[in-house]
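Here is one chain, start to finish.
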Amino acid sequence: MANELGRTVTHRYLYARSWSLGDRKSPLASTPCLISLRDDIKMEETLAPFSAVTDDEIPQTLTVKSNLPLSPPSFAENSPSFESKVGHVLPPSLDEADAGEAAGYGGLLPISWQRLNHDQNLTNLAINPSIIVLVDAVQLAGQQRKLIDALVAIKHQFPGALIWTPGLGGPDNVAVLTWFGVDIFDLARSRQCSAADILLTGSGPRNKVGSDSLENTDMESQLLHWKLAINEVKSALSSGSLRSLVEQRSLNSPKLVEHLRYHDQVVRMKQGVGISHVSKGYSLHCNSAESLANPIVTHWVDYIANQYLPPSGLDRVLVLLPCSAKKPYRMSKSHRKFLDAIGNTSFHEVMVTSPLGLVPRDLEETWPASHYDIPVTGVWSADEVDRTYLMLKSLIDRNQYHTVINHTSMKFDLKGVEYYDTSQNLPPTSRDALDSLREITSLVSKKHGYRNRKHHKILQDNFQSVARYKMNNDSWLFDVKIRGKPPYWRLEQNSKQIALWSNDRRGFSLSKSSIHPIAEHSSLKEISIKPEVSWKGDIFGSIVEVFDKSILSGDDLLVIQNSAPIGLARATASGWEWSSTPGMLAKGHQRL
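Its structure:
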């Protein structure tokens, strides 16, 4: 009986995955997908690449078969096939109880709430499972927090496994469950709705539209809504817009909103779950109040509030400015007016925006500050005001600001600093508001004798700030010289290029010459590959000996072998999935 399932991640976002199934060079199906149960309507194998049956014995035996050739290395016949004992499942409310009946430990792994809490063998399995079945998912979903706690625990323990939550999924929640890390779904809810003459749609269950309508509630119609919902999720995953879809679909029921909010809290506390870099065309859509809790957003908020340090000597005068639709902000017409009015580069400019709260000028080109998009109403919610105020207070308390010039529509009650409101309840780009900004900044400049920074110093400050945010420290940039012209800047050390900065990429492209300075100052997260490996291509789990669990997808990494630096790689997977995820984990791009 084959136990290995060919699968490769093609798109990932936090816990959400689209797995290509079969030969990675020519996959036959992808997740999210359906699994066919006994008496189900016939479905295309690409939509339902698996079938499942249970027998009538006690304990039950669950068998999952592939409807396509998905097993390496030959991919010649429909395989693999998995079989496992399910065991006795107690209600999740009996937290302290243990059913005492052992279930299977092979490629198909049934897990219940009790098993997660009592089966210590789960942490040290001889075989990494290909498919995990959360057998009491429906019961867990009806209780607070348990579904999310179970799914997160499973994802971290078995990052390379596909997860099936029997009876829980539907076209209305497939996006949210995919966001939580579920990969396989069934038609159980759709069958129930069909029997009750109800249509289960992407917006939830509803009655037919009139008796004379052409609309139907048979299983063919139910399946059509599944196809639409699954394709919508796959499209959103590939375009990076899944979170927006999740926020929309979570409104289908109060319970989904509850699950999403708790999931956001859990992810915020987890190490090695996140994204540090995205491609140029990527956009973070923040269209609802739930966007405030997006883990990508809260990671930024936590960093600015608790770790961010302004460029050296710039924490004296703080100028608060409104954001702009164009990114980076300085390229917008409004910010060109602001910069002209301020007329002094020795002030620290920080943008006030939602949902990120505060964006320092020196980090405006980095993810997510350079990639988000929000609807502009001119009205701040209480949550947005509270978040921004707390971030601002923390920034002031941790630094040496003595003056704050506020040119935004948000008002602050700040103690211990000179405070000026230059917007005067006028549009910030109006002539009177700009004149007020020009007058106050000129007054402060003369009062304290602050002089403009040279262009080279501004670039140095910005790059060092980016390095502190994206890397462990900025020590590797010591005594760096900056050459070239925008949008490409060469960073040179001892007449050698150690990095290239590009506005297109919004980050550093590290050169081979940067490896030793980075290693000397421990400026990057490190991975160690096995001593006997001859490293030629990308990074796969099979060659990794040690890795940093705090790795985020997009991080640049220092590759170590035999305690010596040998190259650089860029993570394509976050730290939580490095232990047993098949496929590439990082892309190699420099070798000594």
